Amino acid sequence: MDHLEAFLNFVEQSPTAFHAVANLKEELRRAGFRELREKDPWLVDGGGKYYVTRNDSAMIAFAVPRGGFGPYRIVAAHSDSPAFKLKPRFEDVAEGAYVRLNVEGYGGMIMSSWLDRPLSVAGRLVIREGDGIGTRLVNLDRDSVLIPNMPIHFNREVNEGYKWNIQTDLLPLYGDEKAGGKLMEELAAEAGVSPDQVLAHDLFLYARQPGSIWGAEDAFFSCGRIDDLECAWGCTQALLEADPRDTIAVCAVFDNEEVGSLSKQGADSTFLYDTLTRAGFALGASDGEIRAAMADGFMVSADNAHAVHPNHGEKFDRQNRVYMNRGIVIKHNARQKYTTDAVSDAIFTLVCEKAGVPVQHFSNRSDIPGGSTLGNISNAHVSMNTVDIGLAQLAMHSVCETAGTKDLDYLIRALEAFWG
Ligand code: CO
């Protein structure tokens, strides 16, 4: 199976950050990586390969060279994507005739893209288990709910740019008035427990529409959550295929980037710092040697980039604009929303040159503030030379995004070279 086909398969199996991390873990485990737990002591050896998770929604994997401790070479991406999240008490009878679900927004999604398409529900249930609690991943994986539009006859301005209100416009329909309690029954059955065992949940809506490769010469592909599962999956594949010689190869997939990264499992947490220092100590390095390895480290912050829109080229900078299928995007911002500077740009450009991978440069129009990502946030905890990169895509934060079919291979090849 080629990389893109395997990636589309991964996206279908990964409706939430919990599923993405579970699936990445499984691939690493099958390739001989061993699990470390934060609450246990760590045994780490030269030549060993490991992974550790936090909250089951963030993961850091690393491969130690045979010679043992060395400088850190880090690639970071994120596991989460914008979606609607079910509130703790989510059932709501409307008009005496419907059960709809009470949801809130997670991250900045393009709301209109979620309407009038069947959606499903996935996430985790926390259940009563013996004297304590247990966790179950669930994915209904069937069309279960839908957010209906108003007919245009009652909403004549919908094509003039409509301001959606999640609380009043976007609550999804689940069933008729007799459907009360049925969704939790379905979810509990999926998890193999009874509904009264369920204590709490983190549940999200997602679209089941399978990925599609399309266009002249199959230039493009579309599916959900390309931002940032393409980089998260791509950097994990590169780690599986890499053979680090004298540096520690680290692949970090953080949660909660779409809501600002400030959580125990986000880039604005101690997760990376804790993992790097614990791995260092377990390899016999001193505090000073670990700090030196960070100072001598390099980080690639990998989160997707905006390709020039075919109908709105005017929104993009004239010289620093990027396109799908033309290689890895290096992102620049003078205010350091992106961490790239001349040194990290030059180093990563050389890595790509050696790997035979094209690079292109992105900078926003000076009068359009861009997004930000996890590189500069992570640098507040683990400071090292960092470059911000991504792959060019269209329709970021739509329920169905689009990217170029050639770029995933470029990413994997460049990161293998970075770690090789
Ligand atoms: Co992103």
**Biggest sheet, spatial arrangement of strands:** 1-2-3-13-4-14-18-16-17
Please identify the structural class as seen in this structure. Answer: alpha/beta
Overall mean pLDDT stands at: 97
User: What is the CATH T-level topology of the largest domain?
Assistant: Aminopeptidase
Give a count of the beta strands, DSSP E runs of length 2 or more: 20
When the domains are counted, the total is 2
Helix content: 25-40%
Assembly status: single chain
Assess the beta-strand content as a share of residues: 25-35%
Q: How much is the radius of gyration in Å? A: 22 Å
Distance between the termini: 23 Å
- Mind summarizing the main beta sheet? 9 strands, mixed
Question: How do the helices and strands follow one another from N- to C-terminus?
Answer: HHEEEEEEEEHEHEEEHEHHEEEHEHEEEH
Bound molecules: cobalt (II) ion
Number of helices: 10
Task: Tell me the CATH architecture of the largest domain.
Answer: 3-Layer(aba) Sandwich
CATH class term of the largest domain:
Alpha Beta
Q: Residue ranges: pLDDT <50 for 5 or more in a row?
A: none
Shape: globular
